[in-house]
Amino acid sequence: MNPAIILERKTAWRGGVSPFNVSFGKLFMWFFLVSDALTFAGILTAYGFLRHKYAHVWPVSGDIFVHFPFTHAHLPLAYVGLMTFILIMSSVTMVLAVEAGHRMNKKGVVLWLGLTILGGFFFLLSQVWEWSVFITGTSGGTAVDIFKDGRWVKEIFHGANLIRNEYGHPLYGDFFFFITGFHGFHVFSGVVINIITLKMAVKNVFAKRGHYEWVEKTGLYWHFVDLVWVFVFTFFYLL
Amino acid sequence: MDHHDLQEVYQKITHSEAEGVLVRRKIWIVFWVLLAVTICEVFLTFTGLPAGVIKFMLITMTLVKAFSIVAWYMHLIDEVRNLILVILVPFGIFVLYLLWISITEANFINGFPGAPG
Lengths: 239, 117
Description:
Chain A has one domain: Four Helix Bundle (Hemerythrin (Met), subunit A), CATH 1.20.120. In chain A, 64% of the residues lie in helices and 6% in strands. In chain A, strands 1-2 form a two-stranded antiparallel ribbon. The two termini of chain A are 38 Å apart. By secondary structure, chain B is an all-alpha fold. Helices cover 77% and strands 0% of the residues of chain B. Chain B has four helices and no strands. At the A-B interface, α1, α3 and α7 of A face α1, α2, α3 and α4 of B.
């Protein structure tokens, strides 16, 4: 914070100044992120609640996510770990883009923002792959109760949908689709926003404006997406 | 807010080349911390320690990662103290309430001794 603009407590709210010392856009990006964080907090709390209610039939994520593209090796959680690494890496490139913006360095902003978008794409494709593996399921499958012709019968079921899955309690699949889907949609919109920002940077919009604050605001959103994944990774995959 | 004040606000979002070197060093330090903690988390899951210990350590490590991201990547630590409070306090109150209500209700739904129903 610039010490030159520390405001007097008595005059800070009389108008004409910015008491929080941030622009309107940044302030409301923060408020939006707080509300979005509450949404995720609610979803993850619901997950924890129902997981403990059905603890005896709840599957272990480490037993399900054991696949790695282009290999048949048994690597529990390795690919999710890699996805986490990609997302952290894209957070680093994002914060480097913000830093380059602080130096009014257009080249730097374009380079780092471009890498951030690549990271985002890679993460999205990884999630598509993981969903398809989860939905397809194992070749063995599991016998589950299915209601057919007016009575319950045991039938081999592969993979997962919203009603049943071969891994354990149906709610596990529901939470998987809902949590990673909701987070994935945030990643998707973050990538779109980053592409728009990149286009604006290339067209010198920020250079003409005299500051790269826009990049800082999209950066806040992108870091938030990474922040949510930190929690999803722990609570859904590891615990 | 007139144009002059806006310029003042934007002053703090630019810095010199020399400052940039320091900022970038900090960014990479935070990156190595995040990476190390993530790797530790994955390994911890397969150590076979008691479940309660693993749970406690994982949640602590996750909070360390969350703090690093919010403080240094989202630069919240550099903001005015009142802004930090306006962002963190309402969130903290709601999350503590959520935790309290879910633990209370979980005790009831799992039928601990003396629970009604």
